[in-house]
């Protein structure tokens, strides 16, 4: 299959995973295998960030690659880590001459037969979830087209992983979404009631609610609920002297907050 | 699994272009683009009730969402409630008239065809995608298939965005560009206090007033919050100012 067609097919395969219950390791293994088939590289590997913030090796196109990725994590130096930390592509690194940058990693990679290294961040709208490592046994540069193709594979894999995570957590995320919407509505309703009863404008009503919540160490949304179901009277609210003028000068955001 | 090619095309449009990939405005524009419609909007819904508009491409789609929010009827309300696409290729002269209050103002604004697609991920239902066209005519098979995949991508995108939000809050990316009609809820609170009724009932009174006086719900809410309209019961006065 011609290179462009294979690349296109891989992207489509990745796109398909967006609705399926897919295995992330399988998906990333597909990415690393196709990188080796489509791009002028010898080996490919992917690291993803774990919930604890550390990178984990998720897929490698060869055992040597896997070993080197583990070494990179152990030594805490190498192209993948740099790409992840800087959120930038780290490409065309000649391992024989970069010993200043990653002395231990470069020595180990050379021993394993690699001479050039490249890493691309897996990133979507400010979230970096990992990096794609590409190694070659020969020194030299990756073509611009290859870098773009590798980044395209990394990008689609990133969307697939993020959307899959969202789908797996869809119940929980949706509950959060509904809670967020309800919270805001209840606060707006309570503002309306307080504004009407105490003859305030909406901003003053909000300040009054927030001051009461802070003075009584309550969540704003709970105060709002109590106003709406009349377990808290607006006159009780007004009795508490607002101290928000002091708080506001401290630089706290005047936006509503639920805590 | 089908739809890979379509999905990729849609994702490429979403992540392509200079603008931030997951601005919801951009999401809406891609919805309209991909389906070759005049405009699109995404309505968040829960419990069969519109909660507000997440994004719209233009004034006409904003009007469509606002009317559906105010009236509780329209293509996205039906799509969400019946959990399937709702297609009206000839809104100005439909075979079976529906949405009696929604249709007039929308046709007047130039809408000739409307389509609603539910937004869901598995069993989770988030809202609906509204599409409109300024010419009458049904969706082609291709457009229909694109709209289904687009709705799926949009639903996933909403979850991806909300997944990073702090607890109890709407993600900033979702809030930006959204029209969640807060003034209507403020007005409901005021009317509840004026009539000594619950906020749910107050919202019904507001809607009834808007409908009865042929005014948009938001305009009525603005008047209440601006204190040019009161719902006070006879003989009852405002609480004295403390």
Biggest sheet record of chain A? 5 strands, antiparallel
Distance between the termini of chain B: 66 Å
DSSP summary, beta strand count of chain B = 5
Query: Uncertain regions of chain B: pLDDT < 50 for 5+ in a row?
Result: 235-242
By CATH's scheme, which homologous superfamily of the largest domain in chain A applies?
GAF domain
What's the CATH topology name of the largest domain in chain B? Answer: Beta-Lactamase
**Helical/strand content category of chain B:** alpha+beta
Write the H/E string of chain A, N to C: HHEEHHEHEEHHHHHH
User: Main sheet of chain A: which strands, in order across?
Assistant: 2-1-5-4-3
- Which H/E pattern describes the elements of chain B? HHEEHHEHEEHHHHH
CATH hierarchy: architecture of the largest domain in chain A: 2-Layer Sandwich
Biggest interface reads:
A-B, 55 and 55 residues
- How many E-type strands of chain A? 5
Q: Any guess at the CATH architecture of the largest domain in chain B?
A: 2-Layer Sandwich
Helices and strands in order:
The complex is a heterodimer of chains A (259) and B (242).
Chain A: H1 3-16, H2 24-38, E1 43-49, E2 55-60, H3 63-75, H4 79-86, E3 90-94, H5 103-111, E4 116-124, E5 127-136, H6 144-168, H7 170-198, H8 202-215, H9 220-228, H10 234-239, H11 244-249
Antiparallel strand pairs in A: 1-2, 1-5, 3-4, 4-5
Helix pairs in contact in A: 1-2, 1-6, 2-6, 3-5, 7-8, 7-9, 8-9
Chain B: H1 4-15, H2 24-35, E1 39-46, E2 49-56, H3 59-71, H4 75-82, E3 86-88, H5 100-108, E4 113-121, E5 124-133, H6 141-163, H7 172-175, H8 182-195, H9 199-212, H10 217-225
Helix pairs in contact in B: 1-6, 2-6, 8-9, 8-10, 9-10
